[in-house]
């Protein structure tokens, strides 16, 4: 893999993260509401002098450029600031909520990506048959059904069929591994269904395109078995767009997890982010959005490297 290709992708990564940091910082301050007024609440002792004092203490009295430089300087040195409400380091607040989101996203991605490949290959093999049409209809339904609605339906169904089963909340894996997986399986399925449907349709399309290529006809002429043609020749080329889409799906998972976490009462980054928005907790909100963006961009960087490994032509 060429060094120039890697350095080019790294430079793109830095530019994207810088742009996101600027946009995030500015957009948050355009959200209606004053963090100082919200913090002081309906206290009868609230005066303009007290509001100015609090605004100066948390640094909101500085020009917007100085606020950004102070924040980004702290980020580059590992200091994400303090929560305006709890006065705890933002990094500690995020660390207390990030693990449930990571577990949910990874489990959803594993379910969706693992099942999508064999399902897409099956749809390609059954092209034009009744079963393939049924699978196509199912994949379209999977794309159109919102994850939060599917989660609500799952909760209602399980509450009716097995009311004694606990399905809401979160149990740490170290405390109860089986209980942890039991609480996450339903939200993971709800979050994975659109990914599964999307990736399966992509694999089917890529497989059908690969099976029309000249090298496939040559392999058949040489007497290569149909199984080897499917899984050794066609699938390898079909995995190139699949790998790229998996990286894009990571962004969907992180955004979709915010809503699904609320449905299943999971104390992850979704709850933390929504709470920070309601409280106008600028340091916590900025750091959480930046963290999600960093993860998304880093995953796509890894995907680019994997893409180049699968198809070395992209490095030329």
Keywords:
single chain; 316 residues; mainly alpha; MetI-like fold; 2 domains; 77% helix; globular; transmembrane; transport; ABC di/oligopeptide transporter inner membrane subunit; cell membrane
Commentary on this structure:
- With 316 residues, the protein is mostly helical.
- The protein folds into two domains: 3-76, no CATH class; 96-315, MetI-like fold, CATH 1.10.3720.10.
- The protein is built from twelve helices and no strands.
- Helix 6 crosses helix 8.
- The model has no long low-confidence stretch (mean pLDDT 78).
- It is a multi-pass membrane protein.
- GO terms for molecular function: dipeptide transmembrane transporter activity.
- Residues 98-303 form the ABC transmembrane type-1 domain.
Q: Please count the helical segments.
A: 12
Taking Cα atoms only, what radius of gyration do you get, to the nearest Å? 24 Å
Helix content: over 70%
Oligomer: single chain
CATH A-level architecture of the largest domain: Orthogonal Bundle
The CATH class of the largest domain turns out to be Mainly Alpha
- Kindly report the name of the CATH homologous superfamily of the largest domain: MetI-like
How is the CATH topology of the largest domain named?
MetI-like fold
Can you write the helix and strand succession as a string?
A: HHHHHHHHHHHH
- In terms of DSSP E residues, the strand content is under 5%
Annotation, overall tally of beta strands: 0
Counting structural domains, the number is 2
Distance between the termini: 10 Å
Q: Any low-confidence stretches, pLDDT <50, length ≥5?
A: none
Give the overall silhouette. Answer: globular
Main pleated-sheet profile: none
Mean pLDDT: 78
What structural category characterises the helix and strand content? Answer: mainly alpha
């Amino acid at each position: 893999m060429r060094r120039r290709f890697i350095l080019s992708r790294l430079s793109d990564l830095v530019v994207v993260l810088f742009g996101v940091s600027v946009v995030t910082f500015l957009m948050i301050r355009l959200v209606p509401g004053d963090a100082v007024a919200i913090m002081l609440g309906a206290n009868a002792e609230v005066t303009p002098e007290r509001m100015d004092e609090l605004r100066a203490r948390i640094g909101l009295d500085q020009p917007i450029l100085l606020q950004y430089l102070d924040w980004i300087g702290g980020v580059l040195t590992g200091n994400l600031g303090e929560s305006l409400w709890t006065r705890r380091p933002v990094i500690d607040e995020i660390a207390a909520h990030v693990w449930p989101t990571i577990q949910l996203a990874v489990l959803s991605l594993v379910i969706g990506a693992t099942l999508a490949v064999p399902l897409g290959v099956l749809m390609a093999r059954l092209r034009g048959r009744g079963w393939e049409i049924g699978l196509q209809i199912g994949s379209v339904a999977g794309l159109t059904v919102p994850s939060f609605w599917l989660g609500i339906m799952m909760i209602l169904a399980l509450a009716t069929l097995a009311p004694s089963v606990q399905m809401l909340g979160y149990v740490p894996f170290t405390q109860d591994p089986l209980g942890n997986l039991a609480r996450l399986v339903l939200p993971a399925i709800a979050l994975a269904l659109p990914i599964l449907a999307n990736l399966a349709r992509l694999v089917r399309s890529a497989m059908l395109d690969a099976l029309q290529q000249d090298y496939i006809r040559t392999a058949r002429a040489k007497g290569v078995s149909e199984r080897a043609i499917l899984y050794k020749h066609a699938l390898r080329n079909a995995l190139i767009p699949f790998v790229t889409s998996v990286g894009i799906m990571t962004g969907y998972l992180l955004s979709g997890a915010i809503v699904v976490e609320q449905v299943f009462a999971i104390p992850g980054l979704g709850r933390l982010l929504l709470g920070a928005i309601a409280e106008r907790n600028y340091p916590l909100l900025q750091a959480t959005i930046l963290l999600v963006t960093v993860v998304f961009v880093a995953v796509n960087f890894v995907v680019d490297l994997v893409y180049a490994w699968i198809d070395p032509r992209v490095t030329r």
